[in-house]
Design a protein that fits this description.
With 530 residues, the chain is an alpha+beta fold. 34% of the residues lie in helices and 24% in strands.
Length: 530
């Protein structure tokens, strides 16, 4: 728990004031859904309010703030106003890129309803904390948002900083009270899965010390005789970067001190998802936040689907989407991208499990977007798929912004009974999305350079066909040679073709070669799924 600033209300007072604000969220929600012309303000603060030490493992993480720029599409409604706050300025061409996606809405009209605020602070602190440290900025935000009874706060995730920011602005947070975040840890997720009857891998929760890790590994080996691998996971880690692969020693002693000694010695040879990790740091983080030890599932075929849902201010739970997550990195557990929708063989089962979890969360007072990550395994191509729930993410994630863009751009939604997305024309929609298309040759590209390339090749989204390519995290290009891509098609094949075309254009314009990419994401992962 972060310390309360001097002169701030007590924790009990803070929680009570927050609860009073949250009670107003339903009225705002119903107003927005009553009419596109209903005047309201969405305050968007794309703060990554996680353990900041964990976030430093992610290359270009500062530019993740740009992922929520898809919320600017809310301006397609004439009554919508948006305040968007960032740590560093966003290039004007990037803002124009998103505003021109608003079909039927003059960009000038949308821009008058948009206020951009920047704290000009690149330090390793959550953005919400930075805002709170600037009371004059908070005052200007309050003045611009106007009627607080018609405003709400949107954030990437909830923490005490977002709760305090909501109180300072006097508006509800479209998210959960951080007192409930325990349900979204690795430990809390596993416990809730058991309660809901959702299948999950064998494992042990609430592990902190190295001695407890060794004991958990021993327990797991007894439950799963012959087990070869286990996964260690930090409770509050992000995008798989807090995971480590453990390999059981060969010829493990049956019992006694030598058995514990052998299990402990193997901890010196962990494979981490994060590149710059060390045993000393990793076990220190375990002692601080805790974690789990879980069996590593192996099968002839293994996939990583997920289901996205949300608990509404009304208390109802609704399914948003399903995806195939594309994982990679050293241990094969780091998030690289996704394919929409998930395989039809288990899509509806994913939705059923997510609804069970969502109802349990709603009973506990959670109001939030969330996702449930799974592993799908089968022994052969003609065998049935088994699903195993892995974790609950009580926040937005890498699958949130591409689906948000699809829904805003087409006006469609999921079809009951199939889980497919249909546009108002009745056309099925598919997409591929990644935050991490990366090449050294892309470094040095400025936003205006990218816009010139896109214009020259017609590389954009076409409202007439509801297909095309969108880019995000454009600000990360110059320093990191990294950009996000989402390709929308009327079939999975068309989405892949559009993605390949986008990469081909960028490679040709920059002189990049396929071997020059640090991550050929879909080349590496998708062939195993087709």
């Amino acid at each position: 728990m972060d310390p309360l600033p001097e002169g701030a209300p007590s924790l009990d007072e803070e929680i009570a004031r927050f609860a009073a604000l949250q009670a107003k969220l339903r009225g705002v929600w119903e107003g927005i859904n009553s009419s596109p012309a209903w005047t309201h303000t969405s305050v968007v603060v794309p703060s990554l309010s996680f353990d900041q030490e964990e976030l430093t493992k992610i290359q270009g993480v500062a530019f993740y703030e740009e992922r929520l720029l898809f919320t600017l599409m809310r301006l397609r409604h004439p009554g919508a106003h948006v305040i968007y706050v960032t740590a560093q300025p966003i290039h004007p061409d990037i803002i124009d890129y998103y505003l021109h996606l608003l079909v039927g809405v003059p960009a000038s009209h949308a821009r008058r309803r948009l206020a951009l605020f920047c704290v000009y602070d690149a330090s390793h602190k959550p953005l919400s904390q930075k805002i709170l440290e600037r009371p004059r900025l908070v005052r200007r935000m309050r003045e611009w948002l106007g009627d607080s009874s018609r405003a709400y706060l949107t954030c990437f995730n909830s923490s005490v900083w977002e709760r305090r920011l909501a109180i300072e602005l006097g508006i509800p947070l479209n998210g959960l009270d951080p007192e409930l975040l325990g349900f979204g840890t690795k430990t809390g997720s596993r416990r809730l899965f058991r309660e809901c009857g959702v299948p999950l891998p064998e494992g042990i929760e609430a592990v902190y010390t190295r001695e407890e890790i060794v004991a958990a590994l021993d327990d797991l080996a007894c439950r799963r005789p012959g087990i070869a691998k286990a996964v260690l996971k930090l409770d509050a880690s992000f995008s798989g970067e807090g995971n480590a692969m453990y390999r059981y020693p060969e010829n493990l002693p049956a019992a006694g001190p030598e058995r514990a000694k052998a299990l402990d010695a193997a901890l010196e040879h962990l494979d981490w998802s994060a590149e710059a990790e060390s045993p000393q740091r990793y076990f220190r983080k375990f002692s601080e936040m805790g974690g789990i030890v879980e069996e590593f599932l192996e099968a002839a075929e293994v996939r990583s689907p997920s289901a996205q849902a949300r608990v509404l201010p009304t208390g109802e739970c609704e399914i948003i989407s399903t995806h195939e997550q594309l994982l990679g990195g050293k241990t094969g557990q780091a998030y690289l991208g996704c394919r929409f929708p998930a395989d039809e063989d288990y899509r509806l089962r994913l939705q059923e499990h997510a609804l069970s979890v969502g109802r349990a969360l709603a009973e506990r007072g959670v109001v939030s977007r969330f996702a449930v990550d799974f592993l799908a395994t089968r022994a052969s191509a003609d065998a049935a798929w088994d699903l195993h729930a892995i974790e609950i993410n009580l926040r937005m994630g890498g699958t949130t912004h591409p689906f948000m863009a699809l829904r805003f751009l087409t006006g469609g939604g999921l079809e009951d009974g199939t889980g497919t997305f249909l546009s108002p024309r009745g056309q099925e929609k598919h997409y591929l999305a990644t935050d991490g298309l990366t090449s050294p040759a892309y470094r040095g590209l400025l936003p205006e350079d990218l816009m010139e390339i896109l214009s020259s090749h017609g590389l954009h989204f076409r409202p007439s066909t509801e297909t095309g390519v969108l880019f995000h995290m454009i600000g990360a290009l110059s320093q990191y040679g990294r950009i996000g891509v989402t390709s929308f098609g009327n079939s999975a094949e068309e989405a892949r073709e559009l993605y390949d075309w986008a990469v081909e254009v960028l490679d040709r314009e920059t002189g990049a070669t396929r071997g020059g990419h640090m991550e050929r994401i879909f080349d590496q992962v998708l062939p195993t799924m087709e």
